[in-house]
C-alpha cells in the first residue's frame, strides 16, 4: 500500500456495507454506484475495493489485476449507462486528487458523467 488511508472515509464504509449505495455494477476488484448528488443525468462513481487514497496512489501501487478489474468495470458502467461511443453520445471521466484537485472523499474514485453536454473541461472559481 502507498499513502496513509483513512478507514472511516465514506467509501470505505460503503464497501463494508455500513452505508447503503445504489449499485450499478460490481466485480471482484471494484464497485460502481450512483453519486448521491448527481451533476449530470448519469453520474456514476467507480471505486477499487482496495485501499487507495487517490488516482496516483492506485496507479503506482495497485496490482495489475486490480487495475484491469477496475478498468473493465468502468467499461461495463459506460456500456450500461448507454453513454459509450458504441451508440451513445459520450461522457466525461474525472478524478479529483488532494487539495488542489478538490477531492472530498479520500478513497480513489472515477466520476463517469454523461447524459448531457458536459461543457468546458474546467470552470475555475476562487
Ligand atoms: P470528490 O470531490 O471526492 O471527487 O467527489 C466525491 C463525490 O462523492 C461527490 O460527487 C459526492 O456527491 C459523492 N458522495 C459523497 N458522499 C456520498 C455518499 O454517501 N454516497 C454516494 N453515493 N456518493 C457520495
Brief description of this entry?
The chain is of the alpha+beta class and 126 residues long.
Tell me what the structure shows.
The chain has helices at residues 10-15, 55-61, 64-80, 98-101; strands at residues 23-26, 30-34, 42-48, 91-94, 110-114. It has a single domain, classed as HIT-like (HIT family, subunit A, 2-Layer Sandwich), CATH 3.30.428.10. It is built from four helices and five strands. Bound molecules: guanosine-5'-monophosphate. Guanosine-5'-monophosphate (5GP) binds next to strand 2. Guanosine-5'-monophosphate (5GP) is lined by residues 10, 19, 21, 33-37, 96, 102-105. Residues 10-123 form the HIT domain. GO terms for molecular function: catalytic activity. InterPro entries: Histidine_triad_CS, Histidine_triad_HIT, HIT-like, HIT-like_sf.
H-E order: HEEEHHEHE
User: What is the 3D form?
Assistant: globular
Count of domain modules: 1
Task: Let me know the CATH homologous superfamily.
Answer: HIT-like
Bound molecules: guanosine-5'-monophosphate
Could you give a short account of the major beta sheet? 5 strands, antiparallel
Q: Averaging pLDDT over every residue, what do you get?
A: 96
CATH architecture type: 2-Layer Sandwich
Share of residues in strands: 15-25%
Q: Which regions are unreliable across 5 or more consecutive residues at pLDDT < 50?
A: none
Strand order of the largest sheet: 1-2-3-5-4
* Text of the CATH class: Alpha Beta
Q: State the helicity in percent bands.
A: 25-40%
By secondary-structure content and strand pairing, the structural class works out as: alpha+beta
Kindly report how far apart the N and C termini lie.
34 Å
Number of helical runs?
4
What would you report as the Rg, rounded to the nearest angstrom?
14 Å
Count every beta strand, where a strand is a DSSP E run of 2 or more residues. 5
Q: At the third CATH level, what is the topology name?
A: HIT family, subunit A
Amino acid at each position: 500500500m502507498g499513502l496513509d488511508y483513512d478507514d472511516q472515509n465514506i467509501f470505505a464504509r460503503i464497501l463494508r456495507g455500513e452505508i447503503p449505495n445504489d449499485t450499478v455494477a460490481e466485480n471482484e476488484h471494484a464497485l460502481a454506484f450512483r453519486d448521491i448528488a448527481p451533476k449530470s443525468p448519469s453520474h456514476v462513481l467507480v471505486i477499487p475495493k482496495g485501499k487507495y487514497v487517490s488516482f496516483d496512489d492506485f496507479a503506482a501501487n495497485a496490482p495489475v489485476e486490480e487495475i484491469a478489474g477496475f478498468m473493465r468495470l468502468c467499461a461495463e458502467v459506460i456500456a450500461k449507462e448507454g453513454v459509450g461511443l458504441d451508440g451513445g453520445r459520450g461522457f466525461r471521466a474525472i478524478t479529483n486528487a488532494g487539495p488542489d484537485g478538490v477531492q472530498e472523499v479520500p478513497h480513489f474514485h472515477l466520476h463517469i458523467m454523461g447524459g448531457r453536454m458536459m461543457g468546458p473541461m474546467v470552470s475555475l472559481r476562487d
